[in-house]
């Protein structure tokens, strides 16, 4: 048979694939170790051989050897295995009566005791640790619950304070016009203007009632407003003092002009024990007094936002806020 016929009869799978061939890189020639490198290597090996292992390394090595020994089955060359074989034991079978489902195939594991604690000490430690962990969890839950209760209480107090200010504003709307009083005009029509009396040129000027004579239930609202106004005037006066000559006095200015320009401050009673005692009450108690006063005197229900024509207040569900849900 010719060579051409042999090539034609060869299977196509055996053809060489020159595109997928990989050419291995030539390995680098092994370098000869120099005298200095050999001396350093021998010194390092000698240092490792002469090094004494530490206590931790010895303990880890001992534990490793013990674990390996306990995990290995009893060798057949040992005296104990030969004794068991004489008594009928075969490798893989159980000890004891035949057919016992609870018989052990492997011996009991050995737990090496490494401390001086007595029997049951570990159990007592675990019990104490568990009790401490449970106590810590209870304390965290109690603190979390207390925090939530405190936040809810503060939120309710802020809401009640807002209702108190609203009730004060309502009561001020009913009694606010009473604060402006007109003085009695005598036979003489030429009375000093600072006293709030009438003059020939126009109607009498009204004089404001002192803060201490206002109804205690909404006096705090007026006091807060006056304190804010006084602070605003002080800031304004400080700003204006930098822009104008403070020594200049306008002869045409009266007391009201000086007070408006901040040159004369309005007198505010610094001490009000009655108001301080009322403000020290709980917000809920102050709100209750305001609501009851509005109902009794003005027949106004703060929750209905409606003023009834008579004392019966027919149609109002009740006094409390819960009655209006």
Round the Cα radius of gyration to an integer and report it. 52 Å
Helix-strand string:
HHHHHEEHHHHEE
* Helical stretch tally: 9
Whole-Å distance between the termini? Answer: 113 Å
Structural class: mainly alpha
Helix coverage percent: 40-55%
For the residues shown, what is the average pLDDT?
77
DSSP summary, beta strand count: 4
Indicate the proportion of strand residues: under 5%
How are the strands ordered across the major sheet? Answer: 1-2
Oligomer: single chain
Plain-language structure description:
The strands form two sheets. This protein has a two-stranded antiparallel sheet. A two-stranded antiparallel ribbon has the order 3-4. The chain has 325 residues and is mainly alpha-helical. A hairpin with a 4-residue loop joins β3 (300-301) and β4 (306-307). α5 crosses α6, α5 packs parallel to α9 and α6 crosses α8. 5% of the residues are buried. It is elongated. It contains nine helices and four strands.
List keywords for this structure.
48% helix; two-stranded antiparallel ribbon; mainly alpha; 4 strands; 325 residues; two-stranded antiparallel sheet; elongated
Write the layout of secondary structure elements.
Layout: H1 3-9, H2 35-50, H3 55-70, H4 79-86, H5 121-175, E1 180-181, E2 207-208, H6 216-241, H7 255-260, H8 273-279, H9 283-298, E3 300-301, E4 306-307
Antiparallel strand pairs: 1-2, 3-4
Helix pairs in contact: 5-6, 5-9, 6-8
């Amino acid at each position: 048979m010719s060579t051409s016929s042999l090539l034609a009869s060869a299977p196509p799978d055996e053809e060489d694939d020159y595109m997928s061939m990989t050419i291995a890189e030539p390995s680098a020639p092994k370098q000869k170790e120099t005298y200095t490198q050999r001396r350093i290597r021998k010194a390092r090996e000698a240092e490792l051989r002469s090094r004494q292992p530490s206590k931790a390394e010895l303990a880890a090595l001992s534990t490793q050897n013990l674990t390996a020994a306990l995990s290995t089955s009893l060798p057949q060359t040992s005296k104990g295995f030969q004794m068991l074989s004489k008594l009928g034991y075969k490798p893989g079978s159980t000890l004891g009566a035949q057919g016992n489902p609870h018989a052990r195939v492997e011996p009991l594991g050995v737990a090496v005791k490494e401390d001086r604690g007595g029997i049951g000490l570990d159990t007592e430690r675990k019990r104490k640790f568990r009790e401490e962990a449970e106590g810590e969890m209870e304390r965290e839950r109690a603190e979390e619950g207390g925090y939530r209760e405190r936040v809810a209480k503060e939120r309710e107090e802020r809401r009640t304070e807002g209702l108190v200010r609203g009730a004060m504003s309502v009561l001020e709307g009913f009694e606010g016009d009473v604060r402006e009083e007109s003085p009695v005009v005598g036979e003489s029509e030429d009375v000093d203007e600072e006293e709030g009396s009438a003059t020939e040129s126009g109607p009498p000027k009204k004089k404001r009632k002192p803060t201490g004579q206002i109804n205690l239930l909404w006096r705090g609202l007026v006091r807060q407003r006056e304190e804010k106004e006084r602070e605003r005037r002080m800031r304004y006066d400080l700003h204006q003092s930098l822009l104008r000559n403070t020594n200049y006095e306008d002869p045409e200015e009266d007391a009201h002009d000086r007070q408006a320009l901040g040159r004369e401050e309005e007198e505010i009673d610094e001490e009000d024990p009655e108001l301080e005692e009322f403000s020290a009450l709980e917000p809920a108690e102050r709100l209750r007094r305001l609501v009851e006063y509005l109902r009794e005197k003005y027949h106004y229900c703060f929750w209905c936002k409606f003023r009834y024509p008579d004392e019966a207040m027919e149609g109002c569900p009740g006094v409390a806020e819960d009655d209006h849900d």
